[in-house]
Automatic annotation (TrEMBL):
Species lineage: Bacteria, Bacillati, Actinomycetota, Actinomycetes, Kitasatosporales
Single GO MF annotation: DNA binding
NCBIfam families the UniProt entry points to: PRK09636.1, sigma70-ECF, SigX4
GO biological process: DNA-templated transcription initiation
Organism per entry: Streptomyces kanamyceticus
Matches recorded under Pfam families: Sigma70_r2, Sigma70_r4_2
Assembly: Interacts transiently with the RNA polymerase catalytic core formed by RpoA, RpoB, RpoC and RpoZ (2 alpha, 1 beta, 1 beta' and 1 omega subunit) to form the RNA polymerase holoenzyme that can initiate transcription.
Protein's UniProt name: RNA polymerase sigma-70 factor
Amino acid sequence: MAEDAFNEHRPLLFTIAYEIVGSASDAEDVLQESYLRWSAVDQESVEHARAYLVRVVTRQSLNHLRAVRARREEYVGTWLPEPIRTAPEVSEDAILAESVSMAMMLVLETLNPTERAVFVLHDVFGYTHGEIASSVGRSEVAVRQIAHRARRHVHARRRRFEPDSDAGREIVQRFLRAAATGEIQSLMDLLAPDVVQISDGGGKVVAARRPITGRADVARFVLGVIRSTTPATRAEPATYNGMPAARFVTDGVLDWLVAFEIHDGRITGLYGVRNPDKLHRTDAVLPLDRGGHGTWKP
């Protein structure tokens, strides 16, 4: 049955779509459109279902990404990817964890759609240039050149990254305790000198419009945010995009979500999503699957 074959590969297909379009909701839309196309073909004529489905999802992801690029350029404030709650095993796959991290998703956003798809398929999922060529409508030689250009671009902009771990979660807990008690020096001690704080409110809620850099400024910003919360707000530990995170919930409603980037025992990045449009589906743990053997070295 068409549905059985599609569901078998759904985690892989969702992961590819999410990494190309940068939104869980949009990735689900891509999968819905891809399933409709898959169900309309003669299943017996398809020799390799997974390869066929990857091509369909890649093409639909590219079409979707090209359609939303203009909207993202007009986005109010800083755009962050829609966060996804990830299972512990995602953090055990270093390539997968880094590829869906907030920092890497922001780097991917600076690639053009074709470069992004080629990089994701080749370096993260391990597909050959020849296999990718049929998915993006380019020759194998062109794909090889695109992959080289995209890889150079990504490596020049990638930030240091360590997947979610017990040590990382302990650092986040210490950070939250210091923020709750207003201990600015304790906060600064947990931050790297070049730490970056990025907020995404989408123009719908109060959020910093520009990134904040440096531990003194980031610490003061965090304390200001904490002071603005109500006594009913509580912080819940979680894992999002392969990173330790905290969910800030008030009266059962998720107000904002912060994912923490950690390197060498210090927090190097805080990614705060407050746009309510990106928080409505953050409770479920979404299955991710890389499937291949990517060439990228985290």
